């Protein structure tokens, strides 16, 4: 450990290092961008694995990566530095885009990246017929793991640290962690009497010491800022701090586990009174089925599913000798009961016909109205041209009458289009025309979930990500330095935005779980299951 800053810089000198070397991984490359890159790779890897499990094509993800990651990095480095004083002048403004230097804003990265991703996946969802929320559920939640890995870059930059602690209280941590848990002294504004910057001297950390390793008071006392000399800084004690970046990283991992294995599987625990093996015991032999822990293949009730259901063979000893029976995992039970089940087409044929008829009617009626509006524009232009021609050759005393007739004709044409708009509004509600509301969504949801199982809808995981990380960040923000806030040095604005993020997460959960399934559902689309 180092007790004072002079001890730290003396170690740098004796180790033939520079102050910047402390930020290098294995003494070769800046650690921060390396961990950031590894975090991105981890997010992509896990997302690909999960998408393959759901049989989702990777083409949209591949293109999305090319769009989202560069914009996310730009947003992170820009919003992480632009509020700091050093970057608020034109001479240093361009350095706000130096993503390899300290000062990346996670919210800047996730904000700009999410906007780009939202736009891309929403556009592509019209072609792939995969809900945008399916993509967001898979990608956003996995960012938690990438973020946790990327936080190790903060260790090398010696940032995102908490309240002051004694060195003894963190002695349980590995030495490569605990010996970095202090902030570098801020020397960027230190100048000499001539106004020269300390950093203008390329060997300032060497010249601070005599050849015997003792501090050079002559050199260090010529540099000062706000009444404090470089000598005072070097003689001051190093204050060790809580590894806040590590706590946040662990919190991210725990939140990922909660969402991945808890929120997404809520149906496995929330349907105690209405679970598959109570409805049809012979179809779901499993550990939780009181009637059939296992069942013979000839007694098993089975039906067509979108993918083969996995059964496990169990050896049984009977009076007639050894035999094999089948049992299922809880995952297989729910795949067979809900996720991989198609609704009975014949029983819902009338519903599908109504939906198709309604969609065609809406499309044709809207198209006709738009064509009528275009024709109105042409008619009005023609009326104006005819009016101007007649006006030139009409006597002065008859011009007023001509103007009245022209206005009446214009009003008549506008009245016709207004009546057609009223007919359209009476036939199709505003939300059906402009918000893509499907009036048959509730019936469609019932057809795909006839047993009324409680399930986690697509989009809920994304909402829990926003809510969970917002809460985690708000708690940890109370321990951060003001310069490391999401909005640096602005306490009220910072916590106000965090509150809005938490409310946004709650809204996403409520809308995707309780509103969207009954308002926005289409036949043939992939949501939490294929409709």
Tell me the distance between the termini.
61 Å
Number of helical stretches of at least 4 residues? 20
Strand content: under 5%
Dominant shape: flat
Transmembrane segments: 24-49, 61-84, 104-122, 134-153, 242-263, 491-515
Pfam families: LGT
Keywords: Cell membrane, Coiled coil, Lipoprotein, Membrane, Transferase, Transmembrane, Transmembrane helix
Protein name: Prolipoprotein diacylglyceryl transferase
Word description of this protein:
With 531 residues, the protein is mainly alpha-helical. Among the domains are: 268-339, no CATH class; 349-434; 452-518. 55% of the residues lie in helices and 4% in strands. It contains 20 helices and 6 strands. It has helices at 5-14, 31-53, 59-81, 106-128, 132-150, 152-157, 175-178, 204-207, 217-220, 230-235, 244-261, 267-270, 276-279, 330-339, 349-392, 396-427, 430-434, 441-448, 460-477, 491-515; strands at 24-25, 29-30, 224-225, 228-229, 312-318, 321-327. A two-stranded antiparallel ribbon has the order 1-2. The protein has a two-stranded antiparallel sheet with strand order 3-4. A two-stranded antiparallel ribbon has the order 5-6. Strand 5 (312-318) and strand 6 (321-327) form a beta hairpin. Helix 5 (132-150) runs antiparallel to helix 11 and helix 5 (132-150) packs parallel to helix 19. The longest helix has 44 residues, at 349-392. It starts with a helix and ends in a 16-residue tail after the last helix. This is Prolipoprotein diacylglyceryl transferase. Residues 366-427 form a coiled coil. The chain crosses the membrane at residues 24-49, 61-84, 104-122, 134-153, 242-263, 491-515. One of its GO terms (biological process) is lipoprotein biosynthetic process. Keywords: Cell membrane, Coiled coil, Lipoprotein, Membrane, Transferase, Transmembrane, Transmembrane helix.
